[in-house]
């Protein structure tokens, strides 16, 4: 008797394939459930709970009080300040990264690979250490201040200002803007740009009507990768920002550790996460795949 | 009349590589002009220099009398149909076609109307809203054509425009391109590596190799009177029978046979007789009289290739093998391998090349 691929055989075959796939994915599924989904659920639960008089949390009497606190002026100020700095950081990163990514994408492979390594080098040293390095650079007697003084602008007091935070954030997250932009631009067929020039577009028009729209997925991916961590940044604002520029990350930490108001911290965390999730969804809805 | 394109002493170097080596070329207004050669011969670089996508290292390049040497592409009255079309993937067919007009600040309504006309011209009416990736290769080709023609260029440049299409469609588009060019009366400069395409479509052909311009002429001139071995061999099939010039009317072949072949090369020059397979005649050995003005060599059939409408015989001579192509005929009537035959031709069937 010859073996034939009967419908029954095909069905069984398909089923077995699916089962094998599930088995392969199981370890990572388990890991994510135990260490991500479950803790996340706890955070959400806590955000609806009540803080008791001793700084503990009563898991009863569910309410929306913690969310109502988001409307308070102090929290709102922090929220808007964080949003503002994150948007500013994203824009500056975009402005710096785009020309660089274009340059990179249009070079030969040798130069390109060397430059890409340079982009990645900062990742090899500790993020915290690099932030402290900026503290030295931007300090009142630091090289930056000395330079401006030497140039006749007087000494600069940048450290512990929002400017220092933005400088630090741009420095920290610039590679996350460069890489997706580079990937997107590199994929564009160079002849399309030549076609644009051939069809009477000048350099600016070619950028505006061809290069920019075709690199949009990279722009969105890079912006999300910079915006999201900037919004929740903790280390950089703590080290470079000083006390007067509390941002969301520091606020969340203070709610958990100092005010001992876990529900409030959980509520802010949850809102922050929702915003980030929303941004990511927007990206995928726009057909992006560079993330 | 001013030439559409006038290239004088143009050389293009990329670093140490000479892509185009000191060429002179004049393309007349309203001409269908093909640039033909193997890949890397400099034909595409020449086209790109006319378009303004590359600039000549030396020499002068004029379009309708105006020097355009280093003028950027957007300031030249020419448009290009790119290899693989280079359509804007994020735009509809209509937006692709109206792009050139919009960049020239033609008002929106006029641009759209003219784009529509152009789309009709290439028979794509009804496809205005599609994206390039929703079109077949042939349709994309038409969009690329419409996108260039809508600007009413003085010269249309085409870089291997039919290369990506399958044979049937390619032949169809060849005819359409040719009639479109005739109707518009605009010069088409057409780059191709396909000699058959060049022969069927062009008014004149420039054959290039290794950056040099080898010959410019009508398809018939190029095919019948190739300037050298490379051209003879590259255009169509040919037998190159080696020999030496004896005097103005005779050359001596490698085997010592003296054959009639007029040439203006000095005696003693090493030359080859280019004999097209379809120009040679096959007869049973001894049947040809030298008196009827034909040159003849004897050989043995070494192989037969069946092509359907034709047969190609490999004929082994004493010192080389040549191909002879004949119309198909019934099996019983064909010479078969091992038969002794004579291959003959008249002086006008063959040409002498260096």
Write out key terms for the chains shown.
heterodimer; A: mainly alpha; MetI-like fold; two-stranded antiparallel ribbon; 13 helices; 2 strands; B: 354 residues; six-stranded mixed β-sheet; five-stranded antiparallel β-sheet; 8 helices; 24% helix
Q: Using DSSP, what is the number of strands of chain B?
A: 20
Shape of chain B: elongated
**CATH homologous superfamily assignment of chain A:** MetI-like
CATH architecture of chain A: Orthogonal Bundle
Total number of helices of chain B: 8
Uncertain runs of chain A are none
Level-1 CATH class name of chain A: Mainly Alpha
| Largest protein-protein interface | A-B, 17 and 24 residues
Number of helices of chain A: 13
Helix-strand string of chain B: EEEHEEEHHHEHEHEEHHEEEEEEEEEE
| CATH topology-level fold name of chain A | MetI-like fold
Q: What is the typical, i.e. mean, pLDDT of chain B?
A: 92
Describe the structure.
The complex is a heterodimer of chains A (291) and B (354). In chain A, 73% of the residues lie in helices and 1% in strands. Chain A is an all-alpha fold and 291 residues long. In chain A, strands 1-2 form a two-stranded antiparallel ribbon. In chain A, helix 1 packs antiparallel against helix 13 (262-285), helix 8 runs antiparallel to helix 9 and helix 10 packs antiparallel against helix 13 (262-285). Chain A starts with 6 loop residues before the first helix and ends in a 6-residue tail after the last helix. Chain B is of the alpha+beta class and 354 residues long. Helix content of chain B is 24%, strand content 35%. Chain B has helices spanning 43-51, 93-103, 108-121, 137-149, 167-184, 195-201, 219-224, 229-234; strands at 5-14, 17-27, 32-36, 58-63, 66-67, 78-81, 155-159, 187-192, 204-209, 212-217, 239-247, 250-253, 258-260, 270-275, 281-284, 295-306, 310-316, 321-327, 340-345, 350-353. In chain B, strand 7 (155-159), helix 5 (167-184) and strand 8 (187-192) form a beta-alpha-beta unit. The longest helix of chain B has 18 residues, at 167-184. The model of chain B has no long low-confidence stretch (mean pLDDT 92). At the A-B interface, helix 8 and helix 9 of A face strand 6 and helix 2 of B.
């Amino acid at each position: 008797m010859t073996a034939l691929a009967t419908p029954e055989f095909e069905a069984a075959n398909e089923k077995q394939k699916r089962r094998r796939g599930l088995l392969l994915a199981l370890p990572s599924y388990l890991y994510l459930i135990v260490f991500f989904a479950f803790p996340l659920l706890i955070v959400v639960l806590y955000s609806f709970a009540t803080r008791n008089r001793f700084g503990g949390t009563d898991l009863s009497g569910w309410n929306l009080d913690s969310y109502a606190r988001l409307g308070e002026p102090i929290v709102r100020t922090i929220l808007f300040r964080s949003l503002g700095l994150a948007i500013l950081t994203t824009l500056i990163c975009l402005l710096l990264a785009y020309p660089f990514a274009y340059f990179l994408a249009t070079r030969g492979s040798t130069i390109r690979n060397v430059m890409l390594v340079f982009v990645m080098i900062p990742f090899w040293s500790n993020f915290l250490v690099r932030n402290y390095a900026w503290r030295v650079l931007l300090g009142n007697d630091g090289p930056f201040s000395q330079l401006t003084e030497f140039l006749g602008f007087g000494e600069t007091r940048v450290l512990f200002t929002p400017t220092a935070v933005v400088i630090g954030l741009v420095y920290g997250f610039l590679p996350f803007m460069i890489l997706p932009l580079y990937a997107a631009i590199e994929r564009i067929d160079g002849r399309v740009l030549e076609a644009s020039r051939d069809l009477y577009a000048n350099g600016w028009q070619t950028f505006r009507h061809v290069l920019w729209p075709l690199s949009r997925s990279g722009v969105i991916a890079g912006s999300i990768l910079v915006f999201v961590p900037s919004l929740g940044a903790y280390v950089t604002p703590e080290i470079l920002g000083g006390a007067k520029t509390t941002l969301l990350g520091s606020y969340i930490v203070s709610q958990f550790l100092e005010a001992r108001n876990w529900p409030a911290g959980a509520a802010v965390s949850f809102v922050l996460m929702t915003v980030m999730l929303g941004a990511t969804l927007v990206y995928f809805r726009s057909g992006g795949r560079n993330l | 009349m001013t030439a559409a394109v006038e290239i004088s002493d143009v050389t293009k170097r990329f670093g140490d590589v000479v892509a185009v080596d000191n060429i002179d070329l004049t393309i007349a207004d309203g001409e269908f002009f093909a640039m033909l050669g193997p890949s890397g011969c400099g034909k595409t670089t020449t086209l790109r220099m006319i378009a303004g996508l590359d600039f000549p290292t030396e020499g002068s390049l004029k379009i309708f009398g105006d020097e355009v040497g280093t003028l950027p592409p957007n300031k030249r009255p020419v448009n290009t149909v790119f290899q693989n079309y280079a359509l804007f993937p994020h735009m509809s067919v209509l937006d692709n076609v109206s792009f050139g007009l919009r960049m020239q600040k033609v008002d929106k309504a006029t641009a759209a109307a003219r784009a529509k006309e152009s789309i009709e011209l290439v028979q794509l009416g009804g496809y205005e809203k599609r994206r390039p990736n929703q079109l077949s290769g042939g349709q994309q080709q038409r969009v690329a054509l419409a996108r260039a023609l809508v600007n009413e260029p003085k010269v249309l440049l085409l870089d291997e425009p039919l290369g990506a299409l399958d044979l049937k469609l390619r032949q169809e588009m060849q005819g359409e391109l040719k009639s479109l060019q005739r109707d518009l009366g605009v010069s088409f400069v057409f780059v191709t590596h396909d000699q058959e395409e060049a022969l069927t479509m062009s008014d004149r052909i420039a054959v290039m190799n290794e950056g040099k311009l080898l010959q410019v002429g009508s398809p018939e001139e190029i095919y019948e009177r190739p300037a050298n071995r490379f051209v003879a061999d590259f255009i169509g099939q040919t037998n190159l029978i080696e020999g030496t010039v004896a005097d103005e009317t005779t050359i001596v072949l490698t085997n010592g046979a003296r054959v009639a072949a007029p040439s203006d090369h000095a005696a003693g020059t090493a030359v080859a007789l280019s004999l097209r397979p379809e120009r040679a005649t096959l007869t049973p050995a001894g049947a040809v009289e030298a008196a009827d003005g034909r040159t003849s060599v004897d050989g043995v059939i070494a192989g037969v290739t069946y092509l359907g409408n034709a047969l190609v015989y490999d004929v082994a001579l004493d010192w080389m093998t040549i191909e002879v192509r004949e119309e198909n005929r019934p099996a019983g009537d064909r010479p078969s391998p091992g038969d002794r035959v004579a291959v003959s031709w008249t002086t006008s069937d063959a040409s002498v090349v260096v």
